[in-house]
Design brief:
By secondary structure, the chain is mostly beta strands. It has helices at about 1-25, 175-180; strands at about 25-30, 35-40, 45-55, 55-70, 70-75, 90-95, 100-105, 115-120, 125-130, 135-140, 145-150, 155-160, 165-170, 185-190, 195, 205-210. It has two helices and 16 strands. The protein has an eight-stranded antiparallel barrel. A hairpin with a 4-residue loop joins strand 2 (about 35-40) and strand 3 (about 45-55). The chain is elongated.
Length: about 210
């Protein structure tokens, strides 16, 4: 009798795995909002397709997934590489002794509108501006001791002390953050939800619900 009970228990437990696997297949997405959100598709060949949007930045990543208890483990085909590029390039600069500090921001393809510029004095923000449709930022306050310019998927521009009044700067894509890279990343399974508990530099919603 115990022999048959043992066989039944073995069949019961071994038959659960494909059911769990098949129940996870499909498309999941975050709640998202205007021009931002993430989704992931778990395919039956143990591959996934992850998509992310923040403003005009779109990312697609593929890789493999597997079940580990009550979690899935994700590994993207793309893995981090050492980034040896410069932080930024000063194309032109001069000092006309005006009270303004002007930045013209570009990249390899042209101007960069919508970048954020901050002036600091003793660690406090004293002025905040965004680059206009021509990629230009004009700060009215020249009492800063440091300046930071940032934009999604680009390396930060940081300048300190003894500023000129004009800079034309070519910003550099931050390839280490351009893609969402998964390296043995663990997401918890909670019913029809996948929950990402990892820490990330830029905020994104971490709860994915099944839609297909």
């Amino acid at each position: 009798m115990r022999f048959f009970i043992g066989i039944l228990i073995f069949i019961l437990f071994t038959s659960c795995e494909p059911v769990v696997f098949n129940s996870l297949l499909g498309k999941y997405r975050t709640k998202g909002g205007f021009e931002w959100g993430s989704s992931i598709v778990l395919n039956n060949d143990s591959t996934f397709l992850y998509k992310d949007q923040v403003g005009c930045i779109f990312v697609e990543i593929t890789g493999t997934w597997k079940i580990n208890g009550q979690s899935i483990i994700l590994n993207s085909y793309i893995q981090p590489k050492q980034d040896t590029t410069k932080e930024y390039y000063i194309i032109k600069t001069y000092n006309d002794h005006s009270n303004n500090i002007t930045f013209d921001l570009t990249d390899e393809e042209g101007i960069i509108p919508g970048a954020t510029g901050l002036l600091f004095q003793n660690g406090d923000t004293i002025e905040k501006k965004s680059s206009d449709i021509n990629g230009r930022i004009i700060f009215k306050n020249n009492m800063a001791d440091s300046i930071k310019i940032s934009f999604i998927a680009y390396k930060e521009v940081v300048l300190k002390h003894n500023f000129n009044n004009y800079y034309q700067i070519k910003m550099v894509v931050n390839y280490s953050n351009k893609y969402e890279v998964f390296t043995n990343e663990t997401w918890r399974i909670r019913g029809h939800y996948l929950i990402d508990r990892t820490k990330n530099r830029d905020y994104y919603e971490k709860k994915f619900y099944k839609i297909e």
